[in-house]
Amino acid sequence: MQPRGGSFGSLEEGKESTTRITSQTNRSFPLRLLQFILLLLGIGIVFSVLSMYASWYIKVQNEVPMIHPKFQRCVQESKDIESWIKPPLNLSHYMNDTELFWRASFVPKIKEYPFKRTPKIAFMFLTRGPLPMAPLWERFFKGNEKLYSIYVHTFPSYRPDFPPSSVFYGRQIPSQVAEWGRMSMCDAERRLLANALLDISNEWFILLSEACIPLQNFSIIYRYISRSRFSFVGSFDEPGPYGRGRYNDKMSLEVNITDWRKGSQWFEVNRKLAVDIIRDTTYYPKFEKFCRPACYVDEHYFQTMLSIESPHLLANRSLTWADWSRGGAHPATFGKADIKDNLFQKIFDGELCLYNNQPTKLCFLFARKFAPSALDHLLEHSSKFFGY
Ligand SMILES: *[C@@H]1O[C@H](CO)[C@@H](O)[C@H](O)[C@H]1NC(C)=O
Ligand SMILES: *[C@@H]1O[C@H](CO)[C@@H](O)[C@H](O)[C@H]1NC(C)=O
Ligand SMILES: *[C@@H]1O[C@H](CO)[C@@H](O)[C@H](O)[C@H]1NC(C)=O
Ligand SMILES: *[C@@H]1O[C@H](CO)[C@@H](O)[C@H](O)[C@H]1NC(C)=O
Ligand SMILES: *[C@@H]1O[C@H](CO)[C@@H](O)[C@H](O)[C@H]1NC(C)=O
């Protein structure tokens, strides 16, 4: 038979097979019975598979853990602005530096905050371990809870034992070993800045050591920093061997010798400069490679970089006083016997400096270096010396 066209052909075939089955039915009854039994068997298998799946599904449903009320609240809160501006409750995290710096570099493009933002000062303590001056700082911070936050970078193995009532409790950030005069020191400072940047309320960032003390009460320090048009980064051009003498020609593409700066490690920067520091990939590799001891990178890297990028934002002086009068590589350390009225009078009556382009005698808000033995005397006279 010749096919006559697609649809007609198949119709004919269908007709043919129907006739064939009808004729077979009468011929082989046992075969029909077998088919029926197989069908029943098939249905049985399908049903048992379905019921197994159903019981598994119910079991899995029951195993889904109850959502803890705390997380339910998080889910709810993520709907309002609060959840985006709230600082992290717990400073511990599992980001490495690459991830942390990336996250910390987020900057809003809309400059007006659609909520009441009280700008805070981030006090960043860089220490090997203990903070012997903590009781003095506690007294200084008391009553100003909304205006500051604290971050502590220690040796990674160090476990501080501050009680929950302390302002330092739970303020240790994930830390790594930092060696004086090496890039790992600048890494630690960038790590402090990046962790502090995660709190959108932090507007000013001060680097301090365990040997630093505050020289004024909190309100004076807050007003001084918040009303300054410049950030307090010590930065000057020194011709001698300890200044330009540490410059390496191999970085001349990025840093001209005339741009080379030196200054104190203990800086204060605003949020813009803090982001500039943690996002830098231009100067970092050059300083890492070409500024190694006797080039002490923490005295040159941020100072030079910020002077090139944002000279108009820098006061070019540090807020932290130190006594270099003896000469040598380290400033004087003050112990118990040195804590006398005239020590602080010397600092307060010292040189003149510029504040918002006006001369002032109030040049230093912090001082170093103070030995643990000095603490008791400082606590005893803190109200007379410092007004807190
Ligand atoms: C951090 O982790 C990412 C992803 O694993 C990796 O690409 C990056 O190199 C790491 N950074 C550091 C500093 O270890
Ligand atoms: C922060 O979380 C870590 C674990 O992620 C925990 O060990 C630590 O005690 C917490 N710190 C505070 C202050 O709650
Ligand atoms: C801080 O010190 C200044 C000047 O000594 C004083 O006028 C002010 O009342 C002090 N503030 C507080 C909160 O003690
Ligand atoms: C450094 O700056 C000086 C003066 O601005 C200029 O004459 C000199 O060519 C510069 N050097 C390099 C290597 O760019
Ligand atoms: C700080 O020094 C830079 C040059 O490095 C200069 O442009 C800037 O005006 C100085 N800042 C102040 C407040 O004088």
From TrEMBL:
Its main location: membrane. The keyword Membrane applies. The keyword Transferase applies. It comes from the Eukaryota. The chain crosses the membrane at residues 36-58. Residues 1-21 are annotated as: Disordered. This is Branching enzyme. GO terms for cellular component: membrane. GO terms for molecular function: glycosyltransferase activity. It is found in: Membrane. It is a single-pass type II membrane protein. Keywords: Glycoprotein, Glycosyltransferase, Membrane, Transferase, Transmembrane, Transmembrane helix.
